[in-house]
From TrEMBL, chains A, B:
ATP binds at residues 17-24. Residues 10-190 form the Guanylate kinase-like domain. This is Guanylate kinase. It comes from Ascidiaceihabitans donghaensis. Pfam families: Guanylate_kin. GO terms for molecular function: ATP binding; GMP kinase activity.
Length: 217, 217
């Protein structure tokens, strides 16, 4: 049997970046580019904000349930941020990988590190998006929200904490042009899908070659 | 300073495959695609065949010189095949990597393994090309050469030895369609050029971000 696109394994595509570097826009563009991509919806114990939809933006869960998932090994990664729990449920990811569907994660460096140590680490593609400059990042945070100065300062500090963990990702892209960064992301994902680790059926192909070689000898 | 294409490091792009799987054709197409690619010309102690040009097809060298290069650490990899020495001189590769030029290697699994353990291993992109089938491989070997049956049998055995080392390469492609394989190779090379390990100037960018963050705080 030939190794085909169909029988490849899915990738865990991790996108991390400080808030305001364009990550969410890029994630949306990737989802529009390839409808086979699954987005990993995080679970959280924080309350929904106006307009947020359960099961789409987040799975909104009670703290007891969240903690039970963690102890049951049902969370791929989790962390506490500003007093709330966030995490990536494991079962939908494992199912997608086996179906040959890539899963896109919009998570921070802590989550990326945890997934990077998980049993699925050989299928991880991690990408960090850097902003072109800090003034530009601040401008985007200011334009975007109605937040007051204190909140923006707090976000900038969290942004710097995130940026300081840029190292250790497979790819690090400076998002100075959304279209260019989008193209680069597509190229990277297209290539990584071809990785030997994503193509378990290559083994069947090599076994078939071996049988053919033995028949000829 | 922004990380640009210009100040990236070059890759060592290793193509391995059994003879007859299309590797030479693919290597030529890649060289035609990107004129910044350098081809690593191997050194050998075997005699030139009619039409072979010194410095283009091979560096034809005396056995004493070859052995001196090896002991002086000037060979990135070397091996003895059918009584002759073959190897990849290191200095031109190191120079190209620093200039941000990728170097293409058409070498066997022994060479690939040696380069994979060298000091340049973090810049290696290794790709193995598999034939669609053994009868097809044999047909290509028979059509190509005026070799007699014994030589072809010997080559088929060497081919199988090569195929049996397919595992351990970053990428393994089944060449059932030259154009498709060529496109895949280009995608893979384009992506790997963006790897964090190939972009040392990212560090300058992050340092600039840090200065900007400290100024704002």
């Amino acid at each position: 049997m030939l190794a085909t696109e169909k029988n490849r394994l899915g990738l865990l595509v991790i996108l991390s970046s400080p808030s305001g570097a364009g990550k969410s826009t890029l994630a949306k563009r990737l989802m529009a580019w390839d409808e086979t991509l699954r987005f990993s919806v995080s679970a959280t114990t924080r309350s929904p904000r106006p307009g947020e939809v359960d099961g789409k933006d987040y799975y909104f869960v009670a703290e007891d349930d969240f903690k039970k998932w963690v102890t049951d090994g049902e969370m791929l990664e989790h962390a506490q941020v500003f007093g709330n729990y966030y995490g990536s449920p494991k079962p939908p990811v494992e199912a997608a990988i086996q179906e040959g569907r890539d899963v896109l994660f919009d998570i921070d460096w802590q989550g990326a590190q945890q997934i990077g140590k998980s049993a699925l680490r050989h299928h991880v593609l991690s990408i960090f998006i850097l902003p072109p400059s800090i003034p530009e990042l601040r401008r985007r945070l200011e334009t975007r929200a109605q937040d007051d100065v204190d909140v923006i300062t707090k976000r900038m500090e969290k942004s710097w904490d995130e940026i300081s963990h840029w190292d250790g990702y497979d790819y690090v892209l400076v998002n100075d042009d959304l279209d260019k960064t989008e193209d680069r992301l597509k190229t990277i994902i297209a290539a990584e899908r071809l990785k030997a680790a994503q193509q378990p059926h290559l083994l069947d192909h090599v076994r078939a070659l071996q049988s053919q070689f033995e028949e000829l000898s």
